[in-house]
Amino acid sequence: MIYKGVLKVNGVWIPTPATLEYSIEDLDTDAFQSTDGTVHRNRVGKRGKLSCTWDIVPDTDEFYKFWDILDNLSQFFPVNFPYPNGTRTELPMYRGNPLSTVMRSYYSENGHKISKWKDTKCNFIEQYARKY
Q1: Contact 44, 29 (CB under 8 A)
Q2: Residues 68, 51: contact at Cβ < 8 Å?
Q3: What's the pLDDT score for residue 12?
Q4: Smallest Cα–Cα separation from 124: which of 27, 18, 51?
Q5: In 34-102, which residue ranges form alpha helices assigned H by DSSP?
Q6: pLDDT tens-digit profile of 81-100?
Q7: 60, 77 Cβ separation under 8 angstroms
Q8: CA distances from 72 to 14, 19, 119 (A)
Q9: Phi first, then psi: what are they for 64, rounded to 5°?
Q10: How far apart are CA 22 and CA 24, in angstroms?
């Protein structure tokens, strides 16, 4: 698959997702709430997370190859993606759970039942925490 698009995963361009959400999640060593309701926390770092969805990926050999790429990634791999500050970045990441897709079934005009894989979802999470 050669897509010069938005995401390059483990050196391979994959189909451009319908949605690409980037979030930064705080990492705490501990946190608690005292009896007066005050939250106390020891924030030690942050980690980036990409949440991707693909709405229209046809039920074809191309889809099966795409699924195999996502399903057979190594433990950690580079992901090249557009960063919210307007640049592109490449970070070592891992595939978070779940990797999922939904089979949609419907009837054609002549009454034949048709099923297609759609709504593929996958998360990529930064391997190393960045210090505050």
Answers
A1: yes
A2: no
A3: 93
A4: 51
A5: 61-71
A6: 999 999 999 999 999 999 99
A7: no
A8: 14, 22, 19
A9: -65, -40
A10: 7
Whole-model pTM?
Answer: 0.81
| 68 within 8 A of 77, measured Cβ to Cβ | no
Side-chain-side CA neighbours of 40 within 13 Å: the count stands at: 6
Would you say residue 131 has pLDDT above 70?
A: yes
- Token readout for 57 is 């990926």
From residue 120, give the alpha-carbon distance in Å to each of 17, 103, 105: 9, 10, 15
- How many Å apart are CA 90 and CA 8, to the nearest integer? 9
With CA atoms as reference, report the closest residue to 18 among 27, 7, 31: 7
Distance CA 47, CA 62 (A): 32
Task: Tell me how far apart the terminal alpha carbons of the chain are, to the nearest angstrom.
Answer: 38
H helices of the chain, where?
61-71
Ordered by start, the domain boundaries in the chain are 8-29+43-131
Model confidence at 4, pLDDT cuts 50, 70, 90, reads: low
Assess contact for 97 and 71: CB atoms under 8 A: no
